[in-house]
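note to self: dont lose this again. the chain is below, predicted strucutre after it. 229 aa total, dont forget to put it in the shared folder this time
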Amino acid sequence: MAVVESPVKLIGRMVRDEWGRQIGMVISVLADDRGDMNSLLVRTGDGHVRRYRLSELILTDNEVVVPSGFKKRLKALKRRAVLLKHREALLSSLNGGDEAQAEEANFSRERSELLAQADFLLKQVERAYRRCTEQVRYLQHGMACLEVERELGNVPDKAYELSMKIMMVDLRKFMDERRDLLKLRSELINLVQELSSPSRQSEQEAAVEQEAAEEVPSVEAGEPEPVSA
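---
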């Protein structure tokens, strides 16, 4: 969160998403019950009014940026997953007992909840990726059709150049967003797999230790060790 000397100074600034698409304009600030101005009132391009907390925004010299909610939620899920992993490791180092079994049950529930949330977020990201891909296809198709109409003499040069410039700018923004969504999708798939099989690594380590133990010949007490000739 950027430090703002006076949120009132943000009134009139443009609000965009992190890929540069215009969302709307700041039209007012909102105060909480204590009188602290901690939110902005934004009029969006479709005429609706939305509230954004200052803590959720990125502030630049000339505009207000709304970061991706997907990235924020993924970061929180990954932090919780790492914390759960460390807590489980600490528990495994302690002696067993009723309390340890109860903690293991709690960990199992937490892991199931994390898995459900990660899977839900993955589905949302995949839907957003499909919508973004659809926008890219529409723009590419529109650019091709515009070229054809210009060649046929149906579109004036000035209108062609303006429309083509707008579509090129939008195309780059959607392609940037699609790239970010694809990266998010990959990270979420890895997180879902990790939460789905938390004991895979420990099982592999145990198997390696078992194989190593089997390779070492055991020596019974009181029995002389074999001596190679």
